[in-house]
Each structure stands twice: as structure tokens, then as C-alpha cells.
Write a structure and sequence with these properties.
Elements: H1 4-17, H2 23-36, E1 42-46, H3 52-57, E2 63-68, H4 71-83, E3 89-93, E4 108-114, H5 123-133, E5 134-145, H6 154-163, H7 175-185, E6 188-193, E7 201-207, E8 219-222
Parallel strand pairs: 1-2, 1-4, 2-3, 4-5, 6-8
Antiparallel strand pairs: 5-7, 6-7
Bound molecules: S-adenosylmethionine.
S-adenosylmethionine binds at residues 4, 8, 47-49, 52-53, 67-70, 73, 95-96, 114-116, 119-120.
Length: 235
Amino acid sequence: MTTDVEFWNNLADAYARKPVDDPDAFERKITITKNRMTPDDVVLDIGCGTGSLALRLAPHGSHVHGLDLSKEMIRIAVGKAAAQRVDNVTFHTGPFDDSFDELTDGSLDGICAFSILHLLDDRRSALTKIFRLLKPGGFFISSTVCLGDSLVPYRPLLTVMRWLGKAPRVAVISRRTVVEEMVSAGFVGVTDTDVGAKATIGFVVAEKPSIAHRGSANLRIEHSGWPRGTKREKR
Ligand SMILES: C[S@@+](CC[C@H](N)C(=O)[O-])C[C@H]1O[C@@H](n2cnc3c(N)ncnc32)[C@H](O)[C@@H]1O
């Protein structure tokens, strides 16, 4: 079994070459994120991979930070930033946990976490840290692989694949769980947003309250008219 760091380092070059899985849904996610940004915003992209999202967001804010566990992913991201002459992006290498102290609490206008929450060892602590890092009113936009509602027995499959070095550690969670954990962490306006992606992708927009927040009306499930790749899962 390889460690997750080795897994992602080994995958980096192939990941950089691989086309985005669902380009239409990805563009909708980027549009939603850009629309939340203002030119003064400082944004963190957690699990930034080869920097695709960070580099797309950079023209819409004052500075974008990308963090990734894998030095090979970051090597490619830094190369892409140089090739594209983007100078308002900083890439950091390391895990997103309490050891990450390069940005101070309350310093960020927005945080993105695309295809990463299901990979973290301690998701609840990560959500608490994300909440702390944001300024009041800051946005948190995540896209998470949610295999928990599928009929496919992913847990044993992933265990075998991990032993063979073909998968990293993956938490099998439902979209509902992701939303509920964000609400528990203190986020408001938590909105499971339909971007036309597969039902196993949970795209959730949320924010840190800008003032003391009362009541429990902080959870919304929104459905646009976009088609789903697969049938909607049970809620
Ligand atoms: C599926 S890729 C997603 C990359 C990018 N966000 C995207 O949407 O294309 C997951 C990324 O998360 C990184 N990663 C995995 N565990 C991590 C952790 N604990 N802290 C920071 N990054 C992590 C991996 O190195 C990998 O680049």
C-alpha cells in the first residue's frame, strides 16, 4: 500500500494531462465561484492539484493561494502559473490540517475545496479550520465526491484498490452528510447546488455568518433546470 502523498505524487503528471471529467459542470462551478468574488478578494484553493481552478480564479481576485499535499502537483501548478504569467497566485505544499499555518485566521474572503473533502483524514476539524480562516461573510465553495448514497459497494472496492496502490484513502459519505457537517461547523446559507454534475458530486455553496446568526434556517437544497448525469439519489 502506498501512502496518500506517494499516490498523488505518482499520479501528478497523468492528472495534469487528463481532461476535466465533466467540462460543462466544471464551467458552471467556476462561474458560481467567480460571481462570489470581488477584485479585492484573497481566496484559498484547498487540494489545488495542478492549479487549474486557482489559475482560473486569479484574474477575479487580488490573490489566490493554492495548497496541496503533493509536491509534484505543486511543481506542475507553479509551472502553469509561470507559463500563463499569472503573478497573483502562491502555491503551498503540505496537508490541510492544523500544521498549515501560513495563512492567519479571519484573513480569507473565500475558500474553495474541489474534490478534496472526501480525502481528508479529519473532515470535521478541516471544516472548523476553514470556518476559522474565513473573514465574517466569507464564502466556502466545495465540490465533493459523495459515494455514500450509491448502491455500488464502494467501501470494500476502495479498500482493495487502496491496498493495490490504485486509490487513496476515500471517505464514503453522502451529500446530506456534507451539508450537515457544514451546518454543524457554523456555516450558513448552506446550499447543495445543482450544476448538472453526476448525482455523486455534491457542489455546496456556504458562507461564514457576517453577524451573529440566529435560528436554523441555514440549509437550502436548490435545483436548477440542468440535467443530471445520473438519477438523483435518495435524500
Ligand atoms: C482529486 S484531486 C483534486 C485536485 C483539484 N482540486 C481538482 O479539482 O482538479 C485531490 C488533490 O488533493 C490533494 N490532497 C489529498 N489529500 C490532501 C490533504 N490532506 N491536504 C491537502 N491536499 C490534499 C491531492 O494531492 C490532489 O492533488
